[in-house]
Design goal:
The structure holds two protein chains of two kinds. By secondary structure, chain A is α/β, with parallel strands linked by helices. Chain A has 38 helices and 23 strands. In chain A, strand 6 and strand 7 (158-159) form a beta hairpin. In chain B, strand 2 and strand 3 form a beta hairpin. Chain B is globular, with a radius of gyration of 13 Å. In chain B, 31% of the residues are buried. Classes of the chains: A alpha/beta, B mainly beta. Chains A and B meet through helix 7, helix 8, helix 25, helix 27 and helix 28 of A and strand 1, strand 4 and strand 5 of B.
């Protein structure tokens, strides 16, 4: 079976899968932006199927999403959770918030999947993901979402793929696939959309209040006043939300009701919504036995899971089949992302939607969960076209005269979107986009061969009260806003948010909440600033500018703002004697707290941050120093930069690569200061942290830039490097007889900072003995002539001793020439053992020289075969040598060994007397070459 | 100015009517002198880096009659 067949990937998803694979060969981060309901989870499962060994953390906004993915795996006959996804585990964003740094570091993961990554726009979620990435070098990150912007139209708006900012997924998106694409490709159906313009009375009252400010005698007032009175009456008589509900809900249907997040008592909290829905169902003639309600909110725990599972499987909470009843899941923040429930007939949008993201998530959810439509399609195909038209009529589905049977059936099985909160602008926007996209594809037909799966781009949108809405829009257009009207709204905004940092796209009716129907307050404010600074075509009077200043408008440039804030900080310093300004301290005069003032505490924090990031100019640093600004760096990152800057100063002052003295404490990298940091400790700490992979890429780059070598090679890497040097030596000199003190960086020339190849070979012999050298390494070393001793150290000593014994037997002494080599102990042989060197080494050990050591047993064994420990000259020299601090360790060893030799003259039961020791041992020590 | 050190025992998102993903708040429970102090703030560049088990300074100041309590991370790792 083809790998894509296992998961039955759509063509666009198979393409995206390949792109992810390609991108991750070169890079560690990749993102895709695909509409809700088009199978993003399947792309990830496909990736994980191909990378089973990667330990993967799948980060989801809600448990219901992981439950859904587990379900996909469970229901696929070709997949086995344990076998195919052995290293996959899920966590919610929320579950990570209460982890310590150690716990985050300890997450055993190679790959991170960030589902619905627009959530990273909230500082806390972005930070947690950043920490995971920082503590897991080389981790692969795959982000996916339907919409990349968080909090659109609010002061917190942030696009997580903005190419001009340094967001995690900026310039990392490899595939985009929106709702228009999905409808064009036939992946999602066109919706049947039933809606009403709700809350018209509020809009009418708003316009009425505006009209009241006009001249009551004017023609305009009289005309519009009459219109509004008329419309007010009609609004009260018009069909309402409950009528839409009654007309469109199937008695055995299955729906998700998206409840508002921000509930208000007796208006839209879940309990009231359920109560109201019940009332409408009774009006439809249903009884309590005819419907089943489910509930899922983010804080229901196991009960929420039971509700979701029951709804998914068409059971009641006791496990009884209720597929013949009307089923409604009331969901608050649960079904807007990633979750599918099979067999849905539609969704009910009862959620306040100032965000188009939420709207399109709901829409995508509804479009993608049509259930077993094939069976329904087949049943409807058996009916005549007249019967189908009748069904459409019963369900208020409008038809055009020339519609074919297939199109009518498609409409009948398409999910119904019941919009109770008037999100008309969004659905119309989607319809327009779709039409434009189709035009574009048709225009480029020659270049782009793409099949358009829909015959008609128009949506079936039925909107109640649209005529009333149009009249209100007309009145609104007539009542153009005055400068003072905008000002009043801006003032309300300021009073609510304590600032005038209004997003450019912010629209509002009340000055506080976003409203698509509202005035463009953000754009208006921008125009005021432009006018004040002499840009644009608008003008602003001095009085207007003064009024705006009263509510905190910032006409100044950022630079001016910095100096103004600095002046306030200076006043604070002069008054309080320090710059320990609390984070939430706001002031207008630098001394007293004022809720309407400048956030001086935050300004202080940002100066420290800028200093840390080295983006604060010298002039500003000097100014801040003048007022005793405390740059003391508290946070981990700040402290790191503090250490880094000190090290940088050290290198700049003393020269690159200058070794840092042990115990050197400093605050500036130049002078010793007892209260400073121990620079060598800091430096070594960086190397250890780097080895653990816990330095950020930025930190590594910065350290490398000032000449710090962080490379800490593994044993294997070090062996390979030394081998390459030895090989070069061998190729150049034809042997591997490395002089003992020869060090090299290139294998040929001496370099005092280089590698001692002789020691390397010596160490390798030990590794060979204890079996830590691989077969491959042994073969490589042998290829360049390195020989391995097949014996243990003891075995080699004994072997050499036997040769010495043979020498003694043959020559009658052990005066072995230094360069004497032998295979049998008494005849010179160039290929033989270097016996002369071995004897010399034993003597060195006896005299306490160098690294060689010799045991009492071996001294005795050598004494037995006539070992001469000293030649005449050496003995004289050693006995006359004064004992000093420098040589006392060596002399101690030498004297000890002389004692051993002296005692050897006596039998075990015949030890020297005190007198013997006093006279003869002293004589022994003072002897002149006895032998 | 009164400054005390403590250990963060819990980090959480205060949720009232908003869901956790819409909330811009952050909350900390800090053990100071065997007492648990709860602080809730708006998420900013400084407090989002404070994690569970981190040592923090709780700085109390009264400026112009108004009391301020700040939480700052203390780093002992060099």
């Amino acid at each position: 079976m083809d790998k894509y067949d296992v998961l039955n990937l759509y063509e666009h998803n198979a393409k995206a899968s390949n792109k992810i694979k390609e991108k991750l060969k070169e890079d560690d981060i990749v993102a895709l932006v695909h509409a809700t309901g088009t199978g993003k989870s399947y792309i990830i499962l496909n990736y994980l199927l191909e990378n089973k060994n990667q330990k993967t953390l799948y980060l989801v906004p809600a448990n219901s999403i992981s439950e859904h993915i587990e379900k996909i795996i469970e229901e696929n006959p070709y997949l086995d959770r344990k076998k195919d996804f052995p290293n996959l585990f899920f966590k919610t964003y929320q579950s990570l918030i209460n982890l310590s740094l150690e716990e985050i570091s300890a997450l055993d993961i190679d790959t991170l999947i960030v589902d619905e990554f627009h959530h990273l726009g909230a500082p806390i979620w972005g930070k947690i993901v950043e920490l995971i990435i920082q503590t897991h070098p080389g981790i692969k990150v795959i982000g996916m979402t339907a919409y990349t912007v968080r909090d659109r139209g609010t002061i917190y708006e942030r696009d997580m793929t903005n190419p001009d900012t340094d967001e995690l997924f900026s310039n990392q998106v490899i595939s985009r696939y929106d709702l228009c694409d999905a409808i064009i490709d036939g992946v999602l159906p066109k919706p049947i959309y039933k809606s009403t313009y709700a809350y018209l009375i509020e809009k009418e009252e708003y316009l009425e209040s505006k009209l009241e400010k006009k001249d009551h005698n004017s023609k305009e007032y009289q005309e519009l006043s009459k219109l509004l009175k008329d419309i007010k009456r009609r609004i009260h008589e018009a069909l309402s939300i409950k009528d839409v509900f009654k007309q469109n809900i199937k008695k055995d249907g299955k729906y998700i009701y998206f409840c508002p997040i921000q509930s208000e008592e007796k208006i839209n909290n879940i309990e009231d919504i359920i109560k109201e829905t019940k009332k409408w169902l009774y009006e439809m003639g249903l009884t309590d036995n005819d419907f089943e309600f489910y509930l899922s909110t983010s804080n229901m725990g196991k009960l929420g899971k039971l509700n979701r599972e029951s709804f998914y499987n068409d059971l009641d909470l006791k496990g009884n089949n209720v597929s013949n009843k009307l089923r409604i899941m009331f969901a608050k923040n649960q079904y807007n992302e990633g979750v599918h429930a099979p067999g849905l007939d539609g969704v009910i949008m009862g959620r306040t939607t100032k965000s188009d993201i939420v709207f399109f998530e709901h829409l995508g959810r509804a479009l993608s969960v049509r259930g077993d439509t094939k069976k329904e399609y087949d049943n409807l195909s058996l009916k005549s076209i007249e019967e189908l038209k009748k069904l459409c009529k019963n369900r208020n589905i409008s038809l055009k005269d020339n519609e074919e049977k297939e199109e009518i059936i498609e409409k009948l099985i398409a999910p119904v979107i019941i919009d109770l909160v008037g999100n008309i602008e969004f659905i119309k926007e989607l319809e327009n986009d779709l039409k434009n996209r189709i035009k574009e594809i048709t225009k480029n037909e020659a270049k782009e061969k793409r099949k358009i799966h829909i015959k008609d781009a128009s949506f079936d949108i039925e909107i109640l009260n649209e005529d009333l809405y149009e009249i209100l829009r007309y009145v609104k257009d007539r009542l153009t806003m005055d400068w003072i009207d905008y000002y009043e709204l801006a003032k309300k905004y300021y009073e609510h948010y304590n600032n005038l940092e209004i997003p450019q796209k912010f629209k509002t009716i009340d000055g506080i909440n976003y409203d698509e129907f509202g005035v463009k307050l953000g754009a208006w404010l921008d125009r005021q600033k432009q006018a004040y600074n002499g840009f644009g075509t608008h003008k602003i009077t001095e009085e207007q500018a003064s009024m705006l200043k009263l509510i905190g408008i910032d006409f100044d440039t950022a630079l001016d703002k910095w100096y103004k804030n600095y002046e306030l900080m200076k006043k604070y310093y002069e008054h309080y004697g320090n710059t320990n300004i609390p984070k939430r301290f706001k002031t207008l005069d630098g001394i007293n707290y004022d809720e309407k003032g400048v956030s001086l505490g935050l300004f202080k924090g940002y100066q420290k941050q800028a200093y840390r990031n080295q983006t604060l100019s010298k002039e500003k640093i000097d100014l801040l120093n003048e007022i005793g600004f405390d740059f003391t760096l508290v946070s981990e990152k700040e402290k790191w930069f503090n250490g880094y800057n000190i090290l940088k100063n050290y290198y700049e002052h003393y020269g690159k690569y200058t070794a840092i003295p042990n115990g050197f404490k400093t605050k500036d990298g130049i002078n010793y200061d007892e209260s400073g940091i121990s620079l060598l400790d800091w430096f070594n700490h960086q190397k250890r942290v780097y080895k653990k992979g816990k330095l950020t890429e930025e930190q590594v780059t910065l350290l490398k830039n000032i000449g710090v070598s962080l490379t800490t090679m593994t044993i294997k890497e070090r062996w390979q490097r030394n081998y390459e040097l030895a090989k070069k030596y061998y190729e150049h000199y034809g042997n591997v007889n490395f002089p003992k003190r020869f060090k090299t960086l290139d294998g040929i020339n001496y370099d005092k900072d280089g590698v001692n190849l002789n020691s390397w070979v010596g160490n390798m012999q030990v590794s060979y003995k204890i079996g830590t050298l691989s077969e491959e390494q042994i073969n490589m070393a042998k290829k360049i002539g390195i020989k391995f001793n097949e014996y243990t150290v003891d075995e080699i000593w004994n072997k050499n001793y036997e040769l010495a014994k043979e020498y003694y037997k043959y020559h009658g002494n052990l005066k072995v020439p230094q360069k004497f080599k032998t295979k049998n102990g008494y005849i010179y042989d160039e290929e033989g053992t270097d016996l002369g060197t071995w004897i010399a080494t034993q003597r060195k050990g006896y005299k306490g020289q160098g690294q060689a050591k010799i045991s009492t047993e071996r001294i005795n064994l050598l004494n037995q075969i006539g070992m001469v420990w000293f030649n005449e000259k050496t003995d004289d020299k050693l006995q006359n040598e004064p004992i000093t601090k420098q040589n006392n360790k060596r002399k101690k060893q030498e004297i000890l060994n002389r004692v051993i030799t002296y005692l050897e003259l006596y039998d075990d039961y015949d030890l020297p007397s005190e007198e013997d020791i006093n006279s003869k041992f002293i004589d022994e020590l003072n002897h002149k070459n006895k032998l | 100015m009164e400054s005390k050190k403590g250990i963060v025992t819990e980090v959480y998102i205060p949720v009232e009517e908003q869901d956790i993903y819409s909330s811009n708040k952050i909350g900390f429970k800090i053990k100071v002198d065997n007492e648990i102090i709860t602080l809730e703030e708006t998420q900013d560049d400084f407090n989002i880096g404070i994690l569970k088990n981190d040592e923090v300074s709780i700085i109390k100041q009264t400026i112009g009659g108004q009391e301020f309590i700040d939480i700052e991370k203390v780093d002992n790792n060099g």
